[in-house]
């Protein structure tokens, strides 16, 4: 909106990190390599984006 000098933007932000406290030794758990855990069951940081 040039008249009001407003710019609206939408997009996707993908974040990934490895939480080493969630590791295990596959040989101790039937050689299971990966599992899926809902993000509601694991702490995730609050993200705040702002314009400087």
Structural notes for this entry:
This protein has 52 residues and is mostly loops. It has no helices and no strands. It is rod-shaped and about 65 Å long.
Secondary structure elements and their pairing?
Elements: no helix or strand
Protein name: Neurotransmitter-gated ion-channel ligand-binding domain-containing protein
Domain Neurotransmitter-gated ion-channel ligand-binding: 1-51
InterPro entries: Neur_chan_lig-bd (IPR006202), Neur_chan_lig-bd_sf (IPR036734)
The Cα radius of gyration reads: 20 Å
Structural class: little secondary structure
What is the strand content? under 5%
Helical residues, percent:
under 10%
- Average predicted local confidence, pLDDT: 85
Shape: rod-shaped
Number of strands: 0
Secondary structure tally, helices: 0
State the end-to-end CA separation: 19 Å
Stretches with pLDDT under 50, minimum 5 residues: none
| Major sheet details | none
Domain Neurotransmitter-gated ion-channel ligand-binding: 1-51
Pfam families: Neur_chan_LBD
Organism: Rotaria socialis
InterPro entries: Neur_chan_lig-bd, Neur_chan_lig-bd_sf
């Amino acid at each position: 909106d040039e008249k009001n000098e407003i710019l609206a933007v939408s997009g996707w932000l993908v974040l990934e990190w490895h939480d080493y406290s969630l590791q295990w030794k596959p040989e101790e758990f039937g050689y299971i390599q990966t599992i899926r855990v809902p993000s509601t069951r694991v702490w995730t940081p609050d993200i705040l984006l702002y314009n400087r």
